[in-house]
Amino acid sequence: MQLMLWSLQRARPLWVLNLQEVAEEEEGCRQNPGQLFNPPLVHCVSAAACGNVLACAAEDGRVHVVRVGGGSGPERRTALQAHSQGASQAHFLSFLSHPHWLATGGNDGRVALWDVSPRLSISHGAKVNWLCPALLKGEPCLLVADQSSALSVYSLSAL
């Protein structure tokens, strides 16, 4: 699993970060029992409003958070063990008090909000297919789509 920052002028990557190698070094090559692929697939990439922080939701349940610096490569910040099954979605919530709130959803049916540690964990109950941060009538909300025909709306106004 590689994260690449591309130069569109030169049509080549400026840098490449192999997230699988970093995770293996940190955790001694443990593979999630629910993981079907090796290396784990990236399901979603999101950029914070500041433009220099990325989040990658991966099949192994981790969400990798990476700072893009001005140097020759990225600074890897952390890997959140966000979900017990694949992390299907990760989105920064630009409308909250600061730009580094991150919403994640996974195949384990959980939706979590992260700053550095989880601030809010919602037991959604079904596999999360899509997350959409939104302002509804001026109130911050998180829209969650799963495998049903219903769309769930969770208020974030208490944050």
Automatic annotation (TrEMBL):
SUPFAM superfamilies: WD40 repeat-like
Keywords: Repeat, WD repeat
Keyword presence, Nucleotide-binding: no
PANTHER family membership: WD REPEAT-CONTAINING PROTEIN 53 (PTHR44666:SF1)
Protein's name in the database: WD repeat domain 53
WD repeat copies, ranges: 93-117
Lineage: Eukaryota, Metazoa, Chordata, Craniata, Vertebrata
Transcription regulation found in the keyword field: no
UniProt-listed InterPro entries: WD40/YVTN_repeat-like_dom_sf, WD40_repeat_CS, WD40_repeat_dom_sf, WD40_rpt, WDR53
Species of origin: Anguilla anguilla (European freshwater eel)
